Automatic annotation (TrEMBL):
GO molecular function: DNA binding
Organism superkingdom: Bacteria
UniProt name for this protein: Winged helix DNA-binding domain-containing protein
Keywords: DNA-binding
One matching Pfam family: AlkZ-like
């Protein structure tokens, strides 16, 4: 490694995280789309995560501001994309996410469903699937936003049952409605609309929409890589591969088009930043944040050692590697939090960072409680510390 490479310290990486991820109060975003763009995409598998991740980055506005962006302005949309996971991205970025990642997933989803239909032996094929999809879209046009159950009631084909794994130990009969709806969503022909219930609900209604405009794949990959480096750099090729779910070849081609600069880190390894992005980040004011499980700031790198003490990982991650609700102080994960059944926000520090940190975390917990109001949040992926806090 060349000693002439610019040095980016751990402290500098944490400064970048606070400002670029819009977590320091002076860097808070004014719109939900701006909050999402700051981290490229907001994790959306768990409905509450999307709202709580946006909340932590917004200067003002309650859950209704996020609902406005998702369902009225439609400035933010959910796409099955990176790592075959549901993310919410700004409409400006959506065509690039679609072309770089979601299109490939949609092709695999269709191939897998057609394989299951063929194996079932009922004569269901691509023609049958096309008819079922067309009927579902016609029903949405006629009835407006519908849940999956309502669509199944309106479209007889969606009530079809098939047997998966016939003759094998895992043989099971399943309905096709969920799979057809998932395929239509992956193709960009329908999108999730306002759910039944509150903002914590995942029982979405669906609306007919137009697919995103095509972007050349190389251009789309490069745009995602460029934005990701700006948000998460210094980072490595391996980090980008993990975050996107792309092949190593796709990652390397995208980075070649971006032309990142190399920097050295405190552990004498090298990492990548956006071209010219080697100037020290202004130091933000002291800040605390309570981030939800799966938040991008906790899941943005394969190697999180610059902001997470490895000794704290067992308490804060589930068995599959999903991060739970975390407490942050100045760019470092220092504890975890949870909401009890009575609505109380409880938290525990795993590292002592002094009275100022403890006071700031308490104030942030109170702000979170006011924002959440009467809603109750149970993470989809539960971690040892979260379970312990609510026990």
């Amino acid at each position: 490694m060349s000693p002439s490479l610019p040095l980016v310290t751990t402290a500098e990486r944490r400064h970048r995280l606070g400002r670029r991820h819009r977590l320091a109060p002076s860097a808070h975003a004014s719109t939900v789309a701006e909050a999402a763009d700051a981290v490229v995409a907001l994790h959306a598998t768990d409905a509450a995560t999307l709202f709580l991740s946006a909340r932590a980055r917004l200067a003002e506005g309650g859950p209704e501001a996020v609902e406005q962006a998702l369902y009225e302005d439609v400035s933010l949309v959910r796409l099955l994309s990176m790592r075959r996971t549901l993310f919410a991205v700004s409409c400006e970025l959506a065509p690039y996410v679609d072309s770089s990642t979601a299109r490939g997933i949609a092709v695999k989803e269709r191939r897998n469903l057609l394989k299951h239909l063929d194996e079932d032996g009922q004569g269901l094929d691509a023609g049958w699937l096309a008819g079922a999809e067309a009927a579902a879209l016609d029903a949405l046009d006629a009835q407006g936003p519908c849940t999956g159950s309502q669509l199944s009631a309106a479209v007889p084909a969606l009530r079809q049952k098939i047997t998966v794994g016939r003759g094998k130990k895992y043989e099971a009969e399943t309905g096709v409605a969920t799979r057809v709806i998932r395929l239509l969503a992956a193709d960009g022909r329908i999108r999730r609309d306002r759910p039944r219930g509150s903002w914590t609900s995942s029982q979405f209604r669906w609306v007919h929409t137009e697919p995103w405009p095509a972007v050349p794949a190389a251009e789309a990959h490069a745009e995602i890589a460029r934005r990701w480096l700006r948000a998460y750099g210094p980072a490595t090729e391996s980090d980008l591969k993990w975050w996107t779910g792309w092949t190593l070849t796709e990652v390397r081609k995208a980075l070649a088009l971006v032309g990142p600069d190399q920097v050295r880190l405190e552990d004498d390894t090298t990492a990548l930043v956006s071209p010219g992005d080697t100037v020290p980040e202004p130091v933000p004011e002291p800040w605390a944040a309570l981030l939800p499980g799966l938040d991008p700031s906790g899941m943005g790198w394969a190697d999180r050692s610059f902001h997470l003490d490895p000794a704290h990982r067992p308490a804060l991650f589930d068995y599959a590697g999903n991060i739970g609700p975390t407490v942050w102080w100045n760019g470092e994960i220092v504890g975890g939090w949870a909401q009890r059944a009575d609505g109380e926000i409880v938290w525990r520090l795993l590292a002592d960072r002094g009275r100022a940190a403890e006071g700031a975390v308490a104030a942030e917990a109170a702000r979170l409680a006011r924002w959440v109001g009467e809603a109750r949040i149970t993470p989809r992926f539960r971690t040892p510390l979260e379970r312990e806090l609510v026990a």
